[in-house]
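Input (structure):
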């Protein structure tokens, strides 16, 4: 019998293994050749000078807008027309004094009273801002008195409007006043008729008249809404 051969003693098999190994080695990068692939790009740091200039320009623009709003307070608030010779209320020259109370000395009862007063004050702030502006106070003075920022005051003047209203009932051929008051609502399209409709329902009146700002005898109502039963 001939000599028994194994694959490891077969020359052809060894050559195949050698060929595959060489192909594998050729497919690997040569550690002696430097890597020339481009490095990942990193964002360049922002120019701080340019950023400061941009922020300064934005601040200047905001200050100009606030100054324009301040000079236009009368129009935005639709303030009352003053009679000839009327003297406007002067702006305050001193700040409202702070409360003489500390957190350490606050009692439960006092804290509850202050919290309830705070909620009432927050609800009244828009009306107070509009009334003070109509009386001639500028935004910084109003902000100081109410302990808010001037930006808050400008926002109220820009987004809210105050209406004086009167509710009448028909008495034969004449109108009789049933009630009157003021409301502050969002400055938006359709705010006047919505307010008039609500007042007709709440007061049970036959007619509601609205004036922007504080009404005087010379002002013409901006809207007159008559209920269906009185038309």
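Output (sequence):
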């Amino acid at each position: 019998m001939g000599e028994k051969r194994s694959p490891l003693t077969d020359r052809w098999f060894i050559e195949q293994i050698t060929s595959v190994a060489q192909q594998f080695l050729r497919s690997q990068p040569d550690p002696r050749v430097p890597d020339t692939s481009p490095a990942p790009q990193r964002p360049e740091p922002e120019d701080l000078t340019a950023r400061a200039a941009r922020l300064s320009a934005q601040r200047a623009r905001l200050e100009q807008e606030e100054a324009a709003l301040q000079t236009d307070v009368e129009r935005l608030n639709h303030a009352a027309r003053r009679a000839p010779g009327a003297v406007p209320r002067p702006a305050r020259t001193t700040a409202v004094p702070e409360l003489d109370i500390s957190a350490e000395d606050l009692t439960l009862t006092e804290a509850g009273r202050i919290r309830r007063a705070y909620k009432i004050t927050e609800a009244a702030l828009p009306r107070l801002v509009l009334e003070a502006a109509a009386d001639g106070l500028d935004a910084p003075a109003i902000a100081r008195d109410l302990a808010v920022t001037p930006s808050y005051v400008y926002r109220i003047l820009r987004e809210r409007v105050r209406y004086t209203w009167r509710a009448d009932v028909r008495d034969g051929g004449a109108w009789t006043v049933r009630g009157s008051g003021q409301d502050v609502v969002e400055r938006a399209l359709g705010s006047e008729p919505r307010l008039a409709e609500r007042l007709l329902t709440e007061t049970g009146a036959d007619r509601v008249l609205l004036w922007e700002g504080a009404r005087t005898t010379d002002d013409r109502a901006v809207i007159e809404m008559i209920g269906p039963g009185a038309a």
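Notes: The first strand starts at residue 160 and ends at 171. Confidence is low (pLDDT under 50) at residues 73-91.
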